[in-house]
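pasting input
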Amino acid sequence: MTVSRTSHKPRALTRRSLAAACLSACVALTLAACGTTEDPVTSSGPKSTPKQSSDEKITLVDARGKEVVLDGPAERVVALEWSEVEDLVTLGVMPVGVADVKGYSTWVKSAPLDDSVQDVGTRQEPSVDAVVSLQPDLVIMEGGRGLPIEQLEKTAPVLVIKGSDSTRNIEQMKHNFTLIAQAVGKEDTAKQILSEFDAKLADAKEQIAAAGLAGAGFAMADGWMEGSQVSIRMFAKGSLVSDLAEAIGLVNAWPEKGDAEWGLGVTDVEGLIRLGDVHFFYSASEDDVFAGKEGLANNAIWKSLPFVKAGQVHKLEDGTWTFGGPRSCMHIVDQFVRTLTT
Amino acid sequence: MTDGRLLANDHVKQASGQGQRRRHPARGRRFAFHTWSSAGARSSSTAGVVGLAGATGALLLVLALVHITQGTSGIGAGDLLALATGTPNAEAWNVLVASRLPRLSAGLIVGIALGVAGAAFQSLVRNTLASPDTLGVNAGAYLAITLAAALGLSLPVLPSGALAFLGGLAAAGFVMVLAAGGASGPTRLILAGSATALALGSFTTLLLLLFEEETKGLYAWGSGSLVQADLSASVQMAPILLLGTVAMVALGHRLDLLALGDDKASVLGLRVGRTRIVVTMLAVLLTAAAVTVAGPVGFVGLCAPAIVRLLAPVVPGLMRHRVLLPMSGLAGAIIVLGADVGLRALLGNQSGVDVPTGVVTSMVGAVALVALARRHRDSGPTRQPPAARTRTARGTLWFWLVLGLALAGVVGAAIAGALLGDTLLLTGDLANWLAGVAGPRVLFVLDERLPRVAAALLAGTALAVAGVTVQAVCRNPLAEPGILGITAGAGVGAVTLLTLAPMAGVWLMSSAAGAGALVAFVLVYGLSWRAGLSSDRLVLIGIGVSAGFAALTTLIIVASDPWNTAKALTWLSGSTYGRSFEQLMPLVIALVVLAPLAGVVRRELDLLALDDDVPRVLGVRLERTRLLALVGSAVLTATAVSAIGVVGFVGLVAPHAARALVGGRHARVLPVAAALGALLVSLADTIGRWVIAPAQIPAGLLTALIGTPYFVWLLWRSRMTT
């Protein structure tokens, strides 16, 4: 008898909810009907307005090996990964759209954005709508992210960048910077900045050598905490920061290999023992795992590590992006030299 | 009280003696505690138990000793041995104290806590498949901790543990109420728990996605890890572990009584309600301690008591709770340390930080769950699996009305999907687009959006049709591609291919997903087949295989591409992001061919859903039809997975709702379910693209968040009517 009682209740409920759903759908549709957000294109008019500058077309070959043709130096650029954003800002071209503006402002302080820059969503899944609505004349992104490249290409040329290559990271960084400079017509600026970069490396190498630190051991890490768990991420040989340090005469003491793309690996506090006597650098723009109260500060291994005892643990300034372009790289090198020679 | 207790104990002994021959009446029907010590064999049982405890302790000691010799530094057995013999070695000492022991103690705490909690949960609900995982307690505790972190609270260990306790308690309470305390049978409880865990897990992922810093790798994605900063968490949790375990053991005799059934237990003087509440609190407390130390380490609480129970026939007296509970704790510790030792012995010490321990225990646990489920006895032909009651056939008019409304809903969802998103469009824009006169901006927006809308609609349809078919063939309204592990299998296939050949095209990817789906399906079907297909067994084995494959997917991504969150998103939660029409072709073809085919065989499906005899009598070639239908479902699922990644619960929810609306005839269920499936995934996708624009929530997460409450409601409703 319970069955017969309850068998009517859901029916009424279902009917009512169906009717309600239907009604609300109808209302919504009626309300939304008839409007447009953009005027229709008349058949006589041009479908879009290409720039009349075909004489200065720019042809680039991107990370896909694809020829990307621009009608002229790009002015309205959307960049979907921070390294490329930084390159643009460094070159003096403020992007119109950036993925995760807030995160960029926290993590990449070498090349700040101004208020005009629009947020286009997360770096994992940026909003194509937001990109399109900015009417960019170039979209710069990194490959291998599942981004809808072909769809974006209907809006604007897409330049795909290989963000990192652990076999040649400094070269890759320079290549990316130059490529982006060509796209925005700032090759001279790029040359100037890259020679500044090279000079900085050479100068830093001399200062390191002068301080008697040539061949000195070096390590770079970042990390995060989750409850009582600590994860330490090591910048192995081949990572950008490691390449910079080795370029100025230091030697990365981390013995493990990193991943093929970024040159990163993980370890725990015990693994740090294998570093020996090094200059230990770390970045922590949010939680400080290494010196913070909750982190490793009271750990017996950490306290006994030779570089900790010797006071050779150095935190990079907040907002030092360890996967960035020439500006971030120079910022890192500056910090290396300043910390080690004073 | 003392008298009553003595009396009660005597009764236990008597009842125990009978227990071997007679199965427990009433509530204990499907309850697999089969071995009881008889009163006469008391002394021999004590000897056996002591012997076993000694052997277990020795094994644990050996594991612990091996465990502390493993680590990422060069400190090995030799150094530690030298240290033990008195050679001073500061480095070895520090490593021992600040790294090896914290990891060891975390492993011990997690293992013991989850082992004891698992055994307690199982006794509490009289169900060998209960555990902190299958009851959603792990997921609830972890969600609470993640929520606090997301809100920017950096909590010390103890408050964090308290929060985990509250989260776990809420989840446990919810699941127990849903499943009527387990009295309604194991499948229902596990389903309610798994569904709740899935929803909680989706919510956790969502929080991680929205609030955590992106530079963290997958390591931080909640698989449970023993890597510790120092001993402090263990030191703070150890008293709680001790307290919980001792209290639980002290309550052991009450649990013995409870095992006799509520009625008998209360006749024997047990306050059943109060005991349940206290034991639940203690078990949740232990689980929370484990989650606080190491995150959600999977399936330990399921395996540990199971292993102890396997030994019960050999060692009399093992099933008394004062023995069972501590032994389960020891077994749990052995599982966790064994997984950790084994992993590092096999793949090298670096794997101890590369691979989360929870992934390994989940894989071990999945195997155990499958093995347990294989022993699961069928509950007999009269039992109706928990489901939305099938509506008796109603007028054709009603059917057309429902179908019409559902289709209108799909059209509405499609239109809403096209209009809503980061950029809001109006229907006039759509009209312009249809007329071919849309402006460039609308054109671009729709170019990106329409394939996603289509992907959601098509995948929803495919998963729903696959769900209807599998449910009919397995004669179980709970069987569906997600629960049966077919979706997860397809995910493993696709991820493996992506890892080996990142540039693989959509056809290859669909084939790999298809292969994975078929492997999973053959595995589940083959393992469940024991002189016939028991629907409960099928579902339970499916849940095990599904958990195993999900852990395998995590393992593959962590090992190959740990910093790629986009990949993790698609293959662990499902997303329509970045789809193009070309990528949907395999799915379209599968639907065009297979969906009408399902329609053609609708009568056979009706018959298959009845029993084995009727179709045979009527000349249906049972096995052939069954196999074809299942292979077809696997193909539909695989193509859907290759289009939008791993999305669960659609194949369950849509057919259920359809049956509730239009009755059980497949001619009616199929179209309505297809429409509802499309509606569900499309809504999830649209909401995900819209609500926090320009950021987005993957469709799979929202499908779980929308689908699970409906499913829970179904369970709740059927609870009231059974």
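fyi Residues 198-341 of chain A form a domain with the Rossmann fold fold (CATH 3.40.50.1980).
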